[in-house]
Design goal:
It contains seven helices and 19 strands. The chain is of the alpha+beta class. The strands form five sheets. Strands 9, 12, 15, 16, 17, 18 and 19 form a seven-stranded mixed beta sheet that branches. The chain binds oxidized coenzyme A. Oxidized coenzyme A binds next to helix 5, strand 13, helix 6 and strand 16.
Length: 439
């Protein structure tokens, strides 16, 4: 047997009006006796309005944010009279939430009267009956098992209470569960989608064989955080090219032959820096930063190139300033000096700031291509791999040419693919014929 009941806001004591801050049920949903229907709240207190009996919700008569007072009709339900509990005197008193046990004084008389059309929640949070674990109705439970104070806490932090697993008695969600949930979301950068990044599980590798622990260096820890942030926040595209540096290498060798005993040896890198500077002048968006609101580009009228230097402590990126204004010998000298200071751990913070573009050269080591990570707030980075002699089809025959692999990564929010390709083609031409740098 079933009867339709209109649930009203009970006597609120001294309080005139309260806000409806949560609607915890939906039409056609089955509820158990005592299941929370709404959360109502004013400045001082929050409370749940429990179902007076088991039954099915027919209509919700209020909306979120509505102001309600004693006697306001809020929910219509069809109560299953066969399932109604025993009288208030004989039923178990409501259990306080674990975090409220110290202060609560509950009594059987505070239990909502199931046989009346209106129901009377207690006037303070301390007296609120906890919501039962949702019944297995086959419907997605709208309600989570948490006290009003925990719900309020979750709401204030923007946490989705229905997504939180409770570790309290019978799965009750505690304040600490909300805090843990927020913490894990912050760590994972979770977006709430099914593809949110979860943290790596802590694996006991000793199960599979002998292991040892090694501390990361201070530089590795610092650069690791920076690289991670760059990788997850910048949509990267890497454009590859292979450029003919046969003439450039001949020029480099002649430069070094000229200055056998004086000055720093000219490696490929100063020549690449010079060609990059000319290309940045032709494509200023690559020598820029995105404003924090993502709505403007800050174009820099200086060309300061950071150079990734491999040191025993880890990767550092000292900056060579005004590359466009300096000659190749001076750049070679500065590069040799700054990379030595990097390896001697003598760089100052000033040496590493103010870069507008970065070059990472692994050519002295080897490899054919890689994906350099954009060094934010810059928007592009050039990776240089090892040059090698390759057969190139030219004028009807294969000729041996020295080919240099380039890998240009850029921030796709700022640079589109066509400009990425134009930049690398321009750079490639400048490296193939350094006279173009003068244009
Ligand atoms: N192809 C072929 N040979 C190359 C080359 C290339 N692309 N680049 C350099 N070489 C050669 C040099 O000419 C030199 O040869 P010789 O001794 O015969 O003249 C040799 O390799 C060593 O050069 P180098 O690497 O010491 O000098 P450099 O000016 O090219 O680079 C520096 C300086 C500081 C960039 C480099 O030493 C370095 O640390 N590279 C690693 C950067 C890095 O770790 N990047 C990764 C970042 S992401 O984790």
């Amino acid at each position: 047997m079933s009867t339709e009941q209109i649930i009203k806001i009970p006597d609120l004591g001294d309080v005139d009006t309260v806000d409806v801050v949560e609607i915890l049920v939906a039409p056609d949903q089955s509820v158990e006796e005592g299941a929370p229907l709404l959360t109502i709240e004013n400045q001082k207190t929050a409370m749940e309005l429990p179902a007076p009996a088991a039954g099915i919700i027919k209509r919700i008569l209020v909306s979120l944010g509505d102001k309600v007072s004693a006697g306001t009709e809020v929910v219509v339900m069809e109560a299953d009279t066969a399932a109604q509990p025993q009288s208030a005197e004989t039923s178990e008193p409501p259990k306080p939430a674990p975090e409220q046990q110290q202060s609560e004084k509950t009594s059987a008389s505070e239990k909502p009267a199931a046989s009346t059309a209106t129901t009377k929640p207690a006037a303070t949070t301390a007296n609120v009956k906890p919501a039962p674990v949702p019944a297995h109705t086959g419907q997605k439970p709208v309600s989570a098992f948490a006290s009003p104070s925990v719900r309020r806490f979750a709401r204030e932090l923007g946490a989705d209470i229905t997504a939180i697993s409770g570790t309290g008695n019978k799965g009750r969600i505690l304040k600490s569960d909300v805090q843990e949930w927020i913490k894990s979301r912050l760590n994972s950068g979770g977006s709430g989608s099914a593809f949110a990044i979860s943290t790596m599980p802590d694996i006991d590798f000793s199960k599979f064989g002998e292991i040892e622990h090694q501390d990361l260096s201070r530089i590795q820890k610092l650069s690791g955080k920076h690289l991670h942030r760059c990788w997850v926040t910048i949509p990267h595209v890497t454009q590859q090219d292979l450029t003919d540096i046969t003439e450039l290498e001949a020029f480099r060798k002649s430069l070094n032959a000229e200055q056998r005993d004086a000055g720093a040896k000219v490696t490929l890198l100063p020549l690449v820096m010079k060609a990059v500077a000319a290309t940045l002048q032709a494509y200023p968006a690559f020598n820029a930063s995105l404003t924090q609101n993502g709505e403007q580009l800050i174009l820099k009228h200086y060309i300061n190139i950071g150079v990734a230097v491999d040191t025993p402590e880890g990767l550092v990126v000292p900056v060579v300033r005004d590359v466009d204004k300096k000659g190749i010998r001076q750049l070679a000298q500065e590069l040799a000096e700054v990379s030595q200071r990097a390896r001697d751990r003598k760089l100052t913070p000033n040496d590493m700031e103010g870069g507008s573009f970065t070059i990472s050269s692994l050519g002295g080591i080897g490899g054919t291509a890689f994906t350099p990570i954009v060094n934010a707030p810059e928007v592009a980075i050039l990776g240089v791999s090892r040059s090698s002699m390759q057969p190139v089809y030219f004028n009807g025959e294969f000729v041996p040419r020295l080919m240099l692999p380039l890998s240009l990564s850029y921030d796709h929010r700022v640079i589109d693919g066509a400009n990425g390709a134009r930049f690398i083609v321009h750079l490639s031409r400048a490296l193939s014929d350094l006279r173009r740098v003068l244009l």
